[in-house]
Amino acid sequence: MTDRDELSGRRIGEFVLRERLDEGGFGTVYRCEQPMLGREAVVKVLNHQLRHQDVQLQRFLREAQLASRLDHPYAAHVYAFGAEEEDGLLWIAMEFVHGITLKRWLRDRGPMPLAQFVPFFEHVAEVVQTAHERGIVHRDLKPSNVMVIERAGRLLPKLLDFGVAKLLDGEPLPESTPDTIKKLRALVVEKVPHEILQQFREGEPSTVTGNSPPPRSGSRSRLTRDSATIGTPAYMAPEQWSRAVAVGPSSDLYALAVVAFESLTGRRPFEGMSLADFIEMHSNGQVPPLGGGFPPVLDQMFQRALAKRPEDRFSTALELAGALRAASGLGASRADLPRLEAGVRDVWLASAPRPLAESVAVLDSARNAHQAHLATQELARNLLRYLLAVALAVRAKAH
Length: 399
Fold this sequence. Notes:
Blueprint: H1 3-7, E1 11-12, E2 15-23, E3 27-34, E4 39-46, H2 54-69, E5 78-83, E6 90-95, E7 100-101, H3 102-109, H4 114-133, E8 136-137, E9 146-151, E10 154-159, E11 166-167, H5 178-188, H6 194-201, H7 238-242, H8 249-265, H9 275-284, H10 296-305, H11 317-328, H12 342-351, H13 354-364, H14 369-398
Antiparallel strand pairs: 1-2, 2-3, 3-4, 4-6, 5-6, 7-9, 8-11, 9-10
Helix pairs in contact: 2-5, 4-8, 4-11, 10-11, 11-14, 12-13, 13-14
């Protein structure tokens, strides 16, 4: 009997597993139901071949923690995490996203029109920006990890899969993991079939590097070794090939640029038949022109977005999205930018102290998401300064 047959119809926690949706070297994803709330969800199950590896247990737990830490409307939400005492099954229950992957969208419909893609990409940039502000680097941004939801004539994204995400240096997880991992390991290791353990003692391919066996149980090495490569070759920045542990937000921005190039043209900027080909192209290859009648300035934008050195790229996801909109020639989408109501704006422009009035004017004139983000921050800072000044004045008068 296969794992698939055993798990279909099984109840874990508050969830009842239904059909299998996807399967990989790290885990299997099932559609499920949560009867108490009457809603659909998905459950990701750690493959039992990996349960005896402390590194894999920690990676699975960390995926749940990081996804939970990113509370954003364009990121799939985590509902629960659990380990079954019956057989050591480890699982994560997540939001069921009613949509299709961007990969499938492009396969079925072809390249996305520029006017449609720009606002969609701005939403993707928002959630990636938020992840970076939370200290999270995704490390595997690609069309298959972005869901497309069609609502009221608009395309909205959902970011998936934090299985290989990392925290920036100095960012703590919500809960320290050593004791948790020890408890998980005590629960699940004795449940792993002997023949599966024997396979790994003989050296099965790693789900991280694809070339070498995972660290032995009890290994004290960190989750990503200096020599490991993390990500999907077609979307990996040059620095990801050499030292994965040093990868930062700029690598995510590079991957976003590859996704944008592919979404607009139907092809990736760099292709290869082997890992060596991908390394060579991403490290030394010239960014090809978009072609197809796109504005020439878009080619210049992609030259910078896909620069070989991280410091030569755009500094934030919102800046990248803003550059894409500016180069597209579409102008600002006022519906997607933060705005004050017209009456409030007019009163502030006419009557507010000069710093506040100027901040309101800058916000009102923002032409892209990056400009609006900076203008909103500046308005908030000036408003706090003004309120502090008023409070000090009132206190002084009272005395």
